[in-house]
C-alpha cells in the first residue's frame, strides 16, 4: 500500500474562521505517545519561578469552569494552552487564557455541548462545532479524521461554528502520535495588512505539519502564514526591545483598534 492510500486528512473550521488539520498514516506504524517533541532544557531565568505543569493545568481548568465551561471542555482547552507554553509558543499558552474566559463569560462561545456531524462519507466529514471552544471542536474533528484514516486511508473533516483553537500543532501532533502524518490549518480574523494596503484584510492563517521520523526523531512545523502570529506581536509590545519592525507595530495598532483579535 503506498503513502497516498494511507493518508488521512482532517479539516476543522468555522463560518468566520476555517481550521484544518490533516493526519496521514505513515508506512511505519510506530506509536509516539510516550515521546517528547519539545526541548526539556530549563528556560527559566535565575529570578523566575517555575510552575509545575499540573498546577498550571489545575489553575486554567478552575478559571474556565468558574467562567461557565464544563470540566471536560475546560480540561481540553487547558491541555492545548499548556502544550503551547511547553513547546515555546508563549503567544498561545497561558497568555491567552483571559480571552477564553471572557468569551465564555460573555457568551461569545458556549462552554457546554458537543459538535455534530452534518454530513460524512468514508474519508470525509462536515461538522458543526456549535460555537464551542476551539479545542473541543478541533479534538472532535481530528479524532474523527484519524478514525476515518484508519478505515479508508484518508480522513478529511471540515467544521463550521468553531472558535480560536490554540496552537495548530496540537492537532497535527494528535495524528502523529497514532503513527500518522498530521496537518492542521485555520483562517483567522482579518488583522493583517496586504502589501501596500491601507486597511487590514488577511488573517494570520496558521498551518502545522507533523510527520514521524526514524527513532525518536520527528518533523513538526507550526507557523503563521503571515510574518508573525498576532500573539507574538503583543508579547513583543510588552517587551519593547523586541518590537523592532514597523509592520509589527502596525499590527498592534489595528488589532487594538478593531478589537477582533482571534488568531
From TrEMBL:
What SUPFAM superfamilies would the database entry show? L-sulfolactate dehydrogenase-like (SSF89733)
Does the record carry Oxidoreductase as a key word? yes
Question: Which source organism?
Answer: Caenorhabditis nigoni
Which terms are listed as keywords in the entry? Oxidoreductase
Going by the entry's taxonomy, the superkingdom of the source organism is recorded as Eukaryota
Q: Which family does it belong to?
A: Belongs to the LDH2/MDH2 oxidoreductase family.
Q: Which GO terms describe its molecular function?
A: oxidoreductase activity
Which PANTHER family does the UniProt entry name for this protein?
Answer: MALATE DEHYDROGENASE, OXIDOREDUCTASE-RELATED
What protein is this chain from?
Malate/L-lactate dehydrogenase
This protein's record includes keyword Oxidoreductase:
yes
Amino acid at each position: 500500500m503506498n503513502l497516498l492510500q494511507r493518508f488521512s486528512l482532517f479539516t476543522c473550521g468555522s463560518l468566520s474562521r476555517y481550521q484544518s488539520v490533516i493526519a496521514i498514516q505513515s508506512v511505519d506504524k510506530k506509536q509516539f505517545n510516550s515521546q517528547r517533541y519539545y526541548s526539556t532544557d530549563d528556560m527559566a531565568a535565575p529570578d523566575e519561578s517555575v510552575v509545575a505543569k499540573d498546577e498550571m493545568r489545575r489553575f486554567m481548568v478552575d478559571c474556565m469552569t468558574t467562567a461557565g465551561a464544563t470540566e471536560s471542555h475546560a480540561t481540553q482547552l487547558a491541555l492545548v494552552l499548556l502544550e503551547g507554553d511547553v513547546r515555546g509558543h508563549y503567544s498561545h499558552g497561558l497568555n491567552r487564557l483571559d480571552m477564553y474566559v471572557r468569551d465564555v463569560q460573555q457568551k461569545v462561545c458556549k462552554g457546554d455541548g458537543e459538535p455534530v456531524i452534518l454530513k460524512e462519507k468514508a474519508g470525509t466529514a462536515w461538522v458543526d462545532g456549535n460555537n464551542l471552544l476551539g479545542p473541543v471542536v478541533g479534538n472532535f474533528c481530528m479524532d474523527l479524521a484519524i478514525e476515518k484514516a484508519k478505515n479508508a486511508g484518508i480522513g478529511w473533516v471540515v467544521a463550521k461554528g468553531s472558535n480560536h483553537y490554540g496552537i495548530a500543532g496540537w492537532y497535527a501532533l494528535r495524528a502523529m502520535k497514532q503513527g500518522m502524518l498530521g496537518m492542521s490549518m485555520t483562517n483567522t480574523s482579518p488583522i493583517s495588512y496586504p502589501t501596500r494596503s491601507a486597511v487590514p484584510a488577511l488573517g494570520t492563517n496558521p498551518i502545522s505539519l507533523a510527520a514521524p521520523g526514524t527513532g525518536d526523531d520527528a518533523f513538526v512545523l507550526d507557523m503563521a502564514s503571515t510574518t508573525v502570529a498576532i500573539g507574538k506581536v503583543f508579547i513583543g509590545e510588552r517587551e519593547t526591545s523586541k518590537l523592532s519592525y514597523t509592520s509589527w507595530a502596525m499590527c498592534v495598532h489595528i488589532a487594538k483598534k478593531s478589537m477582533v483579535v482571534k488568531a
